[in-house]
Amino acid sequence: MPKLWNETIDAHRVAVREAILDTTGKLVAEGGLRSVTMSQIAERTGIGRATLYKYFSDIEAVLVAWHERQVATHLHQLTEAAHHGGPAIQRLKAVLEAYADISRQRHGGELASLLRQGEHVTHAERHLAHLVQTLISESAQAGDVRDDIPSSELAHYCLHALTAAARLTSQAATRRLVGVTLTGLRPAP
Q1: Of 20, 34, 134, 158, which is closest to residue 83 (Cα–Cα)?
Q2: In terms of pTM, does the model score above 0.85?
Q3: Domains of the chain by start residue, with CATH
């Protein structure tokens, strides 16, 4: 087959896969993880069920692929916030606020627990911990963050503290939680 033909087919497959994942995201937002079915995805995407099954073997495979894409998107957002410019403490605050906002969006239940066990999640967690640790180290060097506790411990403190945002109901409450977390990083008097 000509190269152009192969590229066109590949582009089509990528577009269909992305449409399936976009639709899955909308269905999850509307009714939660447990409410999504293969039939709904096929109908809303505008493809036949047989076509959907060519891309994904079952609903769990679709949800895992959707979750992998979500994690990658969130990690990209957090990395962008870390490199946006300005003093390290401002970038740290931006990353922590973004992380808390992401934590508020998490979906509960056993299916959500299953999705969070993948290698993609472990990789993202390591990357995020390193990102926060680096910003804490830079902030400590500038005198904005305490230096009497290792930056790796402070990074874990921040990330674990901000998982509490999953139970908060407003952005204002999330911002207060970030503020309390940052207060714990202040240099010792």
Answers
A1: 134
A2: no
A3: 1-56 (1.10.10.60), 59-189 (1.10.357.10)
